[in-house]
Specification:
10 helices; 28% helix; Alpha-Beta Plaits; Aminopeptidase; single chain; alpha+beta; elongated; 2 domains; nine-stranded mixed β-sheet
Length: 465
């Protein structure tokens, strides 16, 4: 443990300031800062602008410098000495929409059974508050650092990440940064993320309509098809059949949803649907409809890209994953979107070459929509070791750095890694489908929030060594 770090002093600071922390946190949670269309000076809508104004107001209240970067993002800065060097903490204040089915009020911070509940508590207003209070601890204890600490608060992380590029157009990036928008300990690498559209055959003779999924980055849990047939079918397992008319039925398939970054344990509803159709509906086996559905059944029945000829892995980040998120009809043809998370040592040019070869061989076409390259940091670097030491000293845990298929600001900002601010073993305390960062009744535990204050402050002291 770094002898310059006083854990009791940090505990006393948090206990003394617990009331003000809750108040500050509640003020941010009360603002429904979902990105919307620009509104005057508010680049990402009024509510995102109000959230940024409130955060900057909190920074000024505690004696820090505060900068508004044209409402794309903002900064709160702790300077203990004059130095051009900076260390960054990169957070965001925008949130995802609430949706239905909450048991708690999403925009009123609730403290219950050791949880802080509300939209944005974990993602990412809670970690932002933890960073602010870590900076307060450093300032109010007159801890001198050979660099400034810049807390950056974005407003467009959830939709397009167009906020940080604007920052980089006007400001020099910190020497090193971390973003507390993941799990502890340090995430040293994120797989590349690419989106593609595979265009298949036309429909119309047997299939009147077909659709599956609502998000390109999630395994769909529902898909349906309207089928021209007079034959009657019963419901079975994950299949529901409705008679629409004497000549049409609607078949709805249920699957098991999952984020594209973590597809293990999922069941793709489009695969369930297409498999049922090709086994139960009479087709000409050489028709474009049949061949397309058979193809979808094959490529969506697994998530490692094996049936697309793109399966690969590396030692640093594991295997490639590939899921089909949204399937729809475009100009009479089936278009299946796929989301690929490829290993950190691979290049999308090589993945796409393999994919194109496979798709074209099967008589279809594919287009690359976007590619977000991976990042990877040396786990033995001084910066990573400084963060890991802080994490271990505060928590007593012995976890090691990891890689992920998810995506954070770390891939969009120079010399940045994801670090905190949650512990994986306290997820799911409110039951299935509740409590997570994009779920109903989102929460962060008091332990996570308070430990993060200590971890972030300790990290800065370690980075100063």
């Amino acid at each position: 443990m770094n002898e310059n770090i006083n854990q009791k002093s940090m505990d006393d600071f948090i206990k003394f300031n617990e009331t003000s922390l809750f108040s500050d946190f509640a003020e941010l949670i009360a603002i429904p800062s979902v990105r919307s269309e620009a509104d005057g000076n508010f680049t990402f809508g009024k509510n995102c602008g109000l959230a940024l104004d409130k955060a900057l107001e909190l920074g000024r209240k505690y004696g820090f410098e505060a900068e508004n970067h044209d409402y794309y993002c903002g900064s709160i800065i702790y300077k203990s000495i004059e130095s051009e060097e900076e260390i960054g903490i990169v957070t965001h204040l925008d949130i995802v929409p609430v949706g239905d089915g909450w048991k708690f009020q999403p925009f009123k911070l609730t403290e219950k059974d050791g949880l802080f509940i509300g939209r944005g508590t974990e993602d990412d207003k809670g970690p932002m508050i933890a960073a602010l209070y870590a900076m307060r601890y450093l300032k109010e204890n007159d801890i001198k650092l050979p660099f400034s600490v810049r807390l950056i608060m974005g407003s467009d992380e959830e939709v397009g990440m167009t906020d940080l590029p604007h920052f980089l157009e006007t400001k020099k990036p910190p020497r090193f940064s971390f973003t507390p928008d993941s799990e502890y300990p340090v995430c040293i690498g994120e797989k590349g993320i690419a989106g593609c559209d595979i265009t298949l055959g036309s429909i119309g003779k047997v299939i009147a309509d077909i659709k599956g999924g609502n998000a390109t980055n999630a395994v769909p849990d529902s898909a349906y098809a309207v089928i021209n047939t007079e034959i009657c079918f019963g419901n079975k397992d994950n299949i529901k059949v409705e008679r629409l008319s004497s000549t049409q039925i609607k078949v709805t398939a249920a699957g098991r949803a999952a984020h594209a970054a973590y597809p293990e344990g999922s069941v793709n509803a489009i695969a369930v649907l297409t498999d049922w159709i090709i086994k139960n509906i009479e087709f000409e086996k050489v028709s474009k409809e049949y061949v397309s559905l058979e193809y979808l059944s094959a490529i969506l029945s697994e998530f490692e890209g094996k049936n697309l000829g793109i399966d690969m892995s590396d030692e640093e980040s594991g295997y490639l994953t590939c899921i089909g998120g949204v399937m729809k009809i475009v100009e009479g043809r089936i278009v299946q979107n796929i989301n690929i998370r490829y290993p950190v040592t691979k290049k999308m040019d090589d993945v796409f070459a393999l994919l194109s070869r496979s798709v074209i061989k099967d008589g279809f076409s594919v287009s690359l929509l976007y590619d977000k390259p991976p990042y990877y940091k040396n786990p033995d670097s001084k910066e990573i070791q400084a963060l890991m030491q802080a994490y271990r000293d505060v928590t007593g845990r012995t976890d090691v750095p990891y890689t992920t298929g998810g995506g954070t600001y770390a891939r969009a900002f120079p010399d940045c890694v994801a670090f905190g601010a949650t512990f994986g073993d306290v997820a799911g305390l409110l039951g299935d489908g509740r409590g997570g960062p994009h779920e109903r009744d989102e929460y962060i535990t008091k332990e996570e929030l308070f430990d993060s204050i200590k971890i972030f402050a300790s990290s800065m002291i370690n980075l100063a060594e």
